[in-house]
Design goal:
- The protein is mainly beta and 159 residues long.
- The protein contains no helices and ten strands.
- The strands form two sheets. The protein has a seven-stranded antiparallel beta sheet, with no helix packed on it.
- Strand 8 and strand 9 form a beta hairpin.
Length: 159
């Protein structure tokens, strides 16, 4: 059985209030909806078609802050794909997704937001919420030139 844990999230929906709660990762993001344990103790299933973004947060008090920090101010340093997500309602968000085909999910994209030291540590963007995804860059590509080897025939300066 795979490991799972409960994470604090804010589920941002299209034209509705943001729902705070807990999701059990990775099981909550499988299928066609987000399974959210509300703070009151009830379990709600929110279809991906109504979900704009799931923000994995540090605490609930700060509220919905992903719009305040939606873009990188400089080129990111974290390795991965630098993506810009365009939502169906015209909104957008940037993030760094892993550059690994084995980590691509069928239902959406997990990404590190522009300022993970702030409120949002990670975001999940359902495919149903998107109109377009743009790759802005590949950071830390594994396709690097091999280091030059020392020439064996070179004379030694010190013996």
């Amino acid at each position: 059985m795979a490991n799972s844990s409960n994470k604090k999230v804010l589920v941002v929906r299209f034209d509705r209030e943001t729902l705070p709660g807990f999701v059990q990762v990775p099981a909550a993001l499988e299928g066609d909806c987000v399974e959210l344990l509300r703070l009151a103790g009830s379990v709600v299933k929110i279809p991906f078609s109504e979900t704009k973004v799931v923000c994995f947060v540090r605490d609930f008090e700060a509220g919905e802050t992903w719009r305040d920090h939606r873009a990188f101010t400089t080129r990111p340093k974290t390795a991965g794909l630098w993506l810009r997500f365009f939502f169906r309602d015209g909104d957008w968000l940037e993030g760094i997704a892993p550059n690994n085909l084995l980590l691509v999910e069928n239902n959406g994209f997990q990404a590190v937001p522009p300022d993970p030291t702030f409120q949002n540590q990670r975001v999940f963007v359902p495919r149903a919420a998107l109109s377009n995804v743009q790759v802005l860059g590949v950071i830390g590509s594994p396709l690097r030139r091999p280091a030059k080897k020392a020439v064996e025939d070179q004379m030694k300066m010190f013996d």
